[in-house]
Amino acid sequence: MNDDEAETPYAARERFWRGEHLAFTPMEPDDAELIQHWRADPVAAQEIGVWPGPLHELHERLVSYVEDRDRDDFLLLLPDDTPIGHIALHSQDFADGTAEAYLLLAAEHRSKGYGADALAALTDLAFGELPLHRVEAVTHTDNAASLATLKKAGFTQEGVRRSSCLHRGRRHDNALLALLRTEWEAQTRPRAWDHV
Prior knowledge:
Blueprint: H1 3-7, E1 17-18, E2 23-26, H2 32-40, H3 42-48, H4 55-67, E3 72-77, E4 83-93, E5 98-105, H5 114-128, E6 134-140, H6 144-152, E7 156-167, E8 170-180, H7 181-186
Parallel strand pairs: 5-6
Antiparallel strand pairs: 1-2, 2-3, 3-4, 4-5, 6-8, 7-8
C-alpha cells in the first residue's frame, strides 16, 4: 500500500450506485471495525436497539452478509471518499417482491440530508434494477429523526408493532413504514442513474 492509498483507503473502492451527494460501494468484511465504531455511538445503539458485540462476531456476520444472496450491503461514501454510513436491502424475497431497508449513519454525518439521499438511491436500486414491489423499514416510534428521514424518502407509516423491541431493559414500540413501487414511480425527483 502506498502513501496515497493509506491516506484515502476508500478511494480505490468501486462505486456501485450513486445518490445525489454520495455513492454506494459494496461492503467488505474488513469494514467491520468502522461499522463497529458507528454502532457503538449511544444514539445509534438506541436507534438500532442493540449494543455492539465483539468485533470478531461482527466480522463473521459481515462475511456471511457478503455470501448471502438475500441481501445487498453497502458503505456510503462522500465524493471525497469519506465513509459516512452503512445501508442495506435485506430479507429480499423476489417471489413476493419485498425487502427491508436498513440505514446507519455516522454521528457526525446525521441531520445533513444524507439519510434521505441514501434511501432515495436505495429505493431506485430496489425498484429500478431489482424486481421488488415493496420496501419496508422499521424504527422505534420515538425515533423522530429516522421517521422524518423515511417520510422524506417517500415511506408511509402503516402501523406500529407494540412492545416489539427490548433495549436497555425497556420495551419499545416499532413503527412499520413502507414504500410501494407505484409510489416510487409517482415520485418526481431525479433518479440514481441521473447522477452518473
